[in-house]
């Protein structure tokens, strides 16, 4: 757990320059696609397969560069390309609109044009007296019926490949080709779960392995679509301002600081414990809101601020209702909330539901009526000026002990 705390201490805002940055700058977007990477045999095979063949070539060109989350999208034509993601070096980022479309068109056209050029070069090699393809055409026209059928067919093949490249500008055709690639698991289709590596945390410049604090290169197959907007600079980078803030807020109480470190440590991982962390400050203006807003900002991509109502007692009449607030917990590692009204009472069954140790949750969406199932990863924390209202038995069940904020 110490390594996760140090990883948090060493996360700093993105800035230019610095020797330490170079040592941990392991995130890099994939190199540009190269039409020559597609084997000639595959190109010739795909030529007669129309949009399906185009989709196979797109799969080769953009594997680990683009994908579509097929679990999220529906069969509706307007929705098919809503969940296309691009790997940007640190994580998978959802594309805005159809920003990928022109990239696909140009790359695919490049493959067909390259193959046409190879066929034209073969003709020029056979007819050394001809300097250009126009000369070859004139030569064939002069020969009329005496032209070699083999080379006439070769010229037609080359021309057909040029025509195929021009078809890449046809939007409906390209969307069919892209859908063929996105619908195939072996190509650009994705039906898996996001953010499943619970002991890894993605930063702008690398992925931090929370088990030992190492910085590792981000990998597309990790399938993270969330990323912290800060750089990671290793376990030994000093952060005196952050540590000074912690000491001041907790009045240098080592027991409280250890409790806070434990809370932050588990919050950075996707491993859910059965703890419900409560920070009680008997007075206002004790710094807890500033501290927790800082943590929420730092872990923003993996943090959700939830309404305290989801932890309160609820009547049976609410069963089966849609829970949009609870759906926001999906993929989150830290769920923060503030104190409830003095008349509200926390429900032990509700708290257990969100601190189950990683149990799956199934909730109905608000409008579609569909159910979403996901494994819980969030650590729950509440900061308040007074103890939440609940029974004495509930207090013993929720956690072994709760710290109080020391008087400043």
Helical fraction equals 25-40%
The main pleated sheet reads as: 4 strands, mixed
Tally of DSSP β-strands: 15
> What's the level 1 CATH class of the domain at 239-398?
Alpha Beta
How would you briefly describe this protein structure?
The protein has 408 residues and is of the alpha/beta class.
Please name the defining characteristics of this protein.
408 residues; alpha/beta; Rossmann fold; 4-stranded mixed sheet; 14 helices; 14% strand; elongated; disordered C terminus
Structural commentary:
The protein is an alpha/beta fold and 408 residues long. It has helices at 2-9, 19-24, 40-46, 50-62, 100-126, 133-143, 149-167, 171-182, 240-249, 254-268, 288-298, 324-327, 348-354, 392-398; strands at 11-13, 66-69, 84-87, 92-94, 189-190, 200-202, 207-209, 214-216, 230-232, 276-280, 303-305, 334-338, 360-364, 371-375, 379-384. The protein has a domain at 239-398: 3-Layer(aba) Sandwich (Rossmann fold), CATH 3.40.50. The chain has a 4-stranded mixed beta sheet, with no helix packed on it. Helix 3 (40-46) packs antiparallel against helix 4 (50-62) and helix 5 packs antiparallel against helix 7 (149-167). It starts with a helix and ends in a 10-residue tail after the last helix.
Question: Helices and strands in order, then pairings?
Answer:
Blueprint: H1 2-9, E1 11-13, H2 19-24, H3 40-46, H4 50-62, E2 66-69, E3 84-87, E4 92-94, H5 100-126, H6 133-143, H7 149-167, H8 171-182, E5 189-190, E6 200-202, E7 207-209, E8 214-216, E9 230-232, H9 240-249, H10 254-268, E10 276-280, H11 288-298, E11 303-305, H12 324-327, E12 334-338, H13 348-354, E13 360-364, E14 371-375, E15 379-384, H14 392-398
Parallel strand pairs: 2-5, 10-15, 11-12, 12-15
Antiparallel strand pairs: 1-9, 2-3, 3-4, 6-7, 7-8, 13-14
Helix pairs in contact: 1-10, 3-4, 4-5, 4-8, 5-7
């Amino acid at each position: 757990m110490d390594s996760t705390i140090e990883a948090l201490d060493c996360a700093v805002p993105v800035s230019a320059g610095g020797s330490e940055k170079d040592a941990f700058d392991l995130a890099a977007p994939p190199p540009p696609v190269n039409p020559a990477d597609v084997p000639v045999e595959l190109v010739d095979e795909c030529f007669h397969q129309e949009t399906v063949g185009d989709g196979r070539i797109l799969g080769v060109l953009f594997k680990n560069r683009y994908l579509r989350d097929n679990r999220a999208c529906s069969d509706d034509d307007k929705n098919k390309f809503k969940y296309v993601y691009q790997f940007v070096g640190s994580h998978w980022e959802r594309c805005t609109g159809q920003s990928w479309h022109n990239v696909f068109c140009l790359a695919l056209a490049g493959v067909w044009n390259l193959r046409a050029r190879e066929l034209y070069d073969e003709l020029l090699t056979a007819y050394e007296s001809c300097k250009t393809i126009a000369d070859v055409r004139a030569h064939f026209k002069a020969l009329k019926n005496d032209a070699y059928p083999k080379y006439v067919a070769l010229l037609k093949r080359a021309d057909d490949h040029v025509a195929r490249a021009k078809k890449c500008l046809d939007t409906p055709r390209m969307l069919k080709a892209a859908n063929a690639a996105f619908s195939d698991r072996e190509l650009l289709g994705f039906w898996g779960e996001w953010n499943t590596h619970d002991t890894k945390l993605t930063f702008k410049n690398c992925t931090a392995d929370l088990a030992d604090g190492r910085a590792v290169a981000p990998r597309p197959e990790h399938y993270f679509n969330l990323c912290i907007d800060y750089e990671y600079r290793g376990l030994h980078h000093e952060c005196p301002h952050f540590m000074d803030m912690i000491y001041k807020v907790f009045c240098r109480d080592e027991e409280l600081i250890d409790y806070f470190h434990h809370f932050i440590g588990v919050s950075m991982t996707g491993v859910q414990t059965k703890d419900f962390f409560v920070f009680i400050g008997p007075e206002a203006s004790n710094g807890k809101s500033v501290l927790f807003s800082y943590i929420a900002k730092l872990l923003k991509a993996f943090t959700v601020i939830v309404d305290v109502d989801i932890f309160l007692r609820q009547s049976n009449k609410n069963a089966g209702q849609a829970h949009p607030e609870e759906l926001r917990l999906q993929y989150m590692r830290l769920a923060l909330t503030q104190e409830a009204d003095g008349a509200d009472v926390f429900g032990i069954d509700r708290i257990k539901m969100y601190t189950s140790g990683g149990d799956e949750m199934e909730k109905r969406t608000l409008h579609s009526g569909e159910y979403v199932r996901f494994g819980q990863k969030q650590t729950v924390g509440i900061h308040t000026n007074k103890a939440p209202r609940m029974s004495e038995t509930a207090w013993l069940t929720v956690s072994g002990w709760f710290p109080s904020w020391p008087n400043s």
